[in-house]
Amino acid sequence: MHYKKFIKNLFIALLLVSLALGFSKSYTSYSIDNLDFVLAMGIDVSESDESKLKVSFEFTRSSNYSPDSGGGSSDDYKPIISSVEASSIDSAINLMNAHMGKELKFSHCKLIVFSEKLAEKGISEHVYTLINNVQIRPSTNIIVSKCESEYYLQNLNPTIEDYITVYYEVFPNSGKYTGYTTNATIGDFFYSMSTNTCESFALLSGISDNDDNSYEDINNINANNIPVQSKRTAENIGIAVFKNDKLAGELNAIEALCFSILTSKVNNFLISVPNPDNSNSYLDIYLHDDMSSKIKVDIVNETPYVHVNLKLTGDISTADYNSKYSNDTTLKEISEYTSSYLESTISDFLYKTSKEYHTDIICVGKRALREFSTWSEYEKYNWKDRYRDSFFDVNVEANIKSGSLITET
Amino acid sequence: MSNSKFNTKEAISLVLVITIAHSLLSLPKKLLENQKSAVILNIAYVSILAVAFAYLVYKLMKSFAGQDIIDISEFLGGKFLRNLLGLVFIAYLTFTGSILLRNFCESIKIVYFPNTKVTFIIAMFIVAVVIVCSLDFKSSVKTTYLIIPIVSLSMIFLFISNLKNFSTDRMFPILGDGITNTFITGLGNLYSFGGLLLLYFLPPNLKDPGKFKKVAITSIILSAIYLLITISIVLFMFAYFVKIDEILPLFSAARYIEFGSFFQRLESVFLLIWFMIFACYLSIVIIFSVEIFKKMTNLKDSKPIVPFFALLLFGTSLIPKNYAVTSFLEADIYPFVNIGIIFILSGSLLILANIKLRKMKAGG
Question: How far apart are CA A340 and CA A397, in angstroms?
Fold first, then answer.
């Protein structure tokens, strides 16, 4: 009896040991001592051979998380960036693994930066490779940099945040209250690239060369000429527009705002409209949408007619010595100004993306699906190519309710 | 199992666990691939038919109160038919259980254990299942009954927390690939109700055999609701699964769950829950295989043969050369096997047995 029990226990012990040994390889490879955490990755065309890639990896020291080190504060933050040239992303990772003597881990990678030059050549192969990597999360932001991706990462230093990771996580979300940029993720990019209802987009960035800090009209502001003087020269403003997997063009700040409004990616935003009482001045108005934009598509004689309806509510934040924001007539007049200003700006944006870039980044194609009863009809229609023939009817109903704290002076 | 019969809720959970286990792997993407945007319409349609079929099974088995399909086959064609059908069912359970086990383990290997041999991952499940089944069959059933609500809640949570990523426009064009594909060839999607198989074995194992009708109808309705939720998640989030074959679609959906920067990476919790439900599924497969074998051989004690069936499952799951083969077996062969055995073979056997019974009654 004892012998039987002994055999049974021995068997169980052997089983447990063999299972533990079987899983030990995976445990060892995930041990923190054997890993280097990548915070951002830059992908560029190699300078020496255009068929090769130059891949840059940004790391952080584990001591940067220690309170004793001062938290790696923004003042003394120096990015640790290493680059390697290789034929593919995976072989670049492999070479960097060998160089670092540790395995690169991408589960905390927040940004993937493609250079404009590479984006123009097409990035589908790289996006598929990245999405195929279990460690890369679909929420990782995708950026197109107007300069070399490595140079951009070197200049993307947080100005006030203690931790670079916090800054990387927070800055793409600024689009929620400005609309001048957007939270473009690799998951969304991959989705848009894989369907026939949408086109892809990415966050646009660059190095600001505006040394004289001169005034720029909002319609001209993009990632290269934002009129800000700051320690950080890397700027993230505007949107990179793709046709299939190739960069088709870029949207400036105000066009990015139109995109954000139409895709409900902005919660509230500020616009400047000409002052009806004084043509030389502008009124700043905070707006938010009462409901998500309504986009309806009619197919008339094989041509898409896109109806856009927006309902916005806002307050005037500008105040001067002669403000009359409690007057109903004034508010009505400002509302009409705001509506017509937005109608024309959004209309220009839609025609620019369809006629100039031939790309449906706001996913009108998804709304057009209702017009077809079967997939074969939709595929036969070839939405992505027909979008360029679209006509747009934009209707904005802005309701300016009051001033802010001061309604009349 | 005779001295540890199931109550109604436990029996319902047994039927549900089959659908749940299959929905974790390629079932949603295969349905989406077949039906495209009409998948919800098609699932609603086949669900009605599945409920009708469950009712038909109840009606056909009503005349054989307290007997399962093995007993009925003996009545119809003697011991030969009983043993033949028993072997077919054991082969079916081993086939479905092993390909699902291999596929699930291959997926886990890719996601979490890249450097571990798949044999060890499969062995982990087999050891767990052998221990559970060796204790008492009833304990597996009770565990399943406890885990089903957790899985159901996790799926509702997955649905709600991904609402912000949903695009309901993806259910258009409403007819997908057309009326014929949705309503005629789409009939084949009845295979997604694999739990129907257990209905053939439940009557002798129910505490209250009078509630078989309730078990049959309720379990299929709940399976249909569960399927609709999982399919909706995949359809509204990733219409691209029509074109792209990605392992574990629900795992991909779980990766999108984020509540601010505080709650992220919840997919590991989902995977843990799915580990549990998968172990339950395997134990159910072994329990019913053992019970069928017991009936075929008139064994008194079935527990000693549990390790044999577990090893059979283990060995069979290692036969496919790679993930491509198991994936092909699960996505392309399993539906036909399911339709053939659950609907055609078992259904016609019940009909023939009823005809024989009527003739016998008529003949006095």
Answer: 9
Buried b (16+ CB within 10 A) or exposed e, B228-250: eebbbbbbbbbbbbbeeeebbbb
From the CB of residue B52, how many other CB atoms can be counted at a distance below 10 Å?
A: 12
Residue B235: which H helix or E strand, with range? helix B212-237
| Residues of chain A neighbouring B116 (CB-CB closer than 8 A) | 22-23, 25-26
Q: Is some CB atom of chain A closer than 8 A to the CB atom of B36?
A: yes
CA angle A119/B235/A196 to nearest 5° reads 40
Using a CB-CB cut-off of 8 Å, the residues of chain B touching A363 are 167
Residue B263 contacts A where some CB pair is shorter than 8 Å: no
Q: Inter-chain contact A194–B120, Cβ cutoff 8 Å?
A: no
* Inter-chain CB pairs, A–B, below 8 Å: 79
Does A26 touch chain B if contact means CB atoms closer than 8 Å? yes
**Contact assignment for B173 to A372 by CB distance below 8 Å:** yes
CA-nearest residue of chain B to A108?
B265
Q: Which residues contact B36 (CB under 8 A, 6 or more apart)?
A: A375, B176, B177, B242
Residue A294, min C-alpha distance to chain B (Å) = 13
Look at B258 and A169 and tell me if their CB atoms are within 8 Å.
no
Closest B-chain CA to A376: B177
Q: How far is B227 from chain A (nearest CA, A)?
A: 23
Tokens of B306: 């549990």
Q: What are chain B's domains?
A: 8-362 (1.20.1740.10)
3-class DSSP state of A268: strand
Instruction: Answer for the pair B116, A25: CB distance below 8 angstroms, yes or no.
Output: yes
Set of chain A residues whose Cβ sits within 8 Å of the Cβ of B240: 190-191, 194-195
The string of pLDDT tens digits covering residues B272-319 is 999 999 999 999 999 999 999 998 888 888 888 899 999 999 999 999
Per-residue pLDDT of chain A (409 residues; tens, 9 = 90+): 578 788 878 888 888 887 777 777 666 666 667 778 899 999 999 888 888 999 999 987 766 555 555 444 555 667 788 999 999 999 999 999 999 888 888 988 999 999 999 999 999 999 999 998 888 989 899 999 988 999 888 888 777 777 777 788 888 888 888 888 888 999 999 988 888 889 999 999 888 765 555 555 666 666 666 666 666 677 788 899 999 899 999 998 889 999 999 998 888 888 888 777 777 778 888 888 877 678 999 999 889 999 999 998 888 877 666 666 667 777 888 888 889 989 999 999 999 999 999 999 999 999 999 899 898 899 899 998 899 999 999 999 988 877 665 666 5
Q: Would you call A191 an interface residue with chain B, using a CB distance cutoff of 8 Å?
A: yes
pLDDT, tens digit (0-9, with 9 covering 90-100), for B133-150: 888 888 888 899 999 999
* Domains of chain A by start residue, with CATH: 22-262 (no CATH), 267-409 (3.30.300.210)
| Distance to chain A for B85, nearest Cα, Å | 36
Contact call for A369 and B112, based on CB within 8 A: no
* Cβ B340 vs Cβ B91: under 8 Å: no
A222: Cα separation from own chain's centroid: 14
Which residue from B minimizes the CA distance to A365? B169
B293 Cβ under 8 Å from any chain A Cβ:
no
Tell how strand A111-115 and strand A141-145 pair up: parallel
| For range B177-203, the mean pLDDT | 92
Sign of the CA dihedral running B26, B29, B35, B40? positive
What whole-number distance in Å separates Cα of residue B31 and Cα of residue B40? 9
Of A25, A190, A377, the CB nearest to B115: A25
Residues of A in contact with B256 (CB under 8 A): 138-139, 187
Summarize chain B as % helix, strand, coil (round to 5).
Answer: 80, 0, 20
